[in-house]
Amino acid sequence: MPAAASPQSAVPVIGPADHARVLSRVLLGPVIKGPIVRRPKAVGLAERFDADSWGVAEMQRVRARYGAGPVQLRVAGRRVALLLDPEDVHRVLNETPGTFSPASLEKRGALNHFEPKSSLVSSSERRASRRPFNEQILETARPIHSHAQAMTAAVTEEVSALLGHADFAGVLDWDAFAVMWGRMVRRIVLGTSARDDEQVTDDLRRLRERANLSYFMPQNRGLRERFLGRLQDYIELAEPGSLAAMVAQAETADDIAPHQQIPQWLFAFDAEAWATFRALSLLTAHPEAAEMARTEMAQAPDLPFLRATVLESLRLWPTTPLILRDSTVETRWRNGVLPAGTSLVIYAPFFHRDDETLPEAHRFSPELWLRDRDDTDWPLVPFSGGPGMCPGRNVVLLTSSMVLGELLRRREFTAQKPLNTDPLPGTLSPFSSRFSVRPV
User: Fold this and answer.
1) I want to staple 234 with a disulfide (CB 3.0 to 4.6 A). Which of 244, 261, 388, 406 is the partner?
2) Cα-atom radius of gyration of the chain, to the nearest Å?
């Protein structure tokens, strides 16, 4: 292990061989799978080789060789620092957006394809008004949104239609689940009349596919304007019970750009679909937990165990594997200094699945989420953390736990390819999961 650096020296740069290993085993996988919209074939290939387990093992090796302090890489002309210690993760997340900006260079390049005025990629001045607007509409502090009744109705009706299809087909697969999920999300966010507006979802998907390549893909401004214009139409329609209606009724400053905050909500719901379908895999592999979840539906919409199950799905298989921050000033660390403009990388699978530190790393442990957590805890960051935590966290957890519970309340499911639970795999594709269906 290298000697500790003096406080005035730079954070150590890892050697060429370590560079190659980190790039290939840690950073390349999320890019190939699709950072903004997943590529199912690439995710399937990653599952076959259990790619995320290789990433975690490589991070453990780097920590053992270089110590707990951050380490630097040089990537395409960028100064990148990998975080290896929970204390540093808490620091970066808690000092967002001041010292560490969430509007990283890579994130701006990607999200500018479909939401250039989103809070996530705004300057600190614009973020100061756009972030509170998001929190107001999404009711960030409330576990149960004030529109819970309308959301529950959308969930119940769309799951009912899905189960009718599954009963006829004899199987529940990703394609059918994704169609149901899209209809539900459009109803919740845009209004009931948007249920069958697959064009708006397809436009966003096409823009997100371009965003996978960030600055390397030219922006399709015409498609973006059509998509954003359609969102504005739904705001003006303001259907009761929708988030779009809340946007229409909110008092906003000119620089907030309300319609450009909505794409991120749709984006977050998309990732939650993967988590929910994986959570179904977890529950089919743990029948006692499935029965607990089924029983809990009697107290809907307050569903702590189902929420914990979805959070476990997100811990085991993070939908945002790379949490990025750019430093706005020079920062000092235990092993040296990083200049302003450094990209700080939190590799979530490492902190979620580090079996050298976390006893529950590779097993289903919903109890992790049923106790109070604070900033001294080992960092589990399925929705990021600190002031930059996802403002829609409670909305997506409410709806995903309701979908999962409604499925279990009405049917029993058996995975056609049983999930290995000892240990749970490091990578799991939701796109190839299939479940046999029978009455409860």
Assistant:
1) 244
2) 21
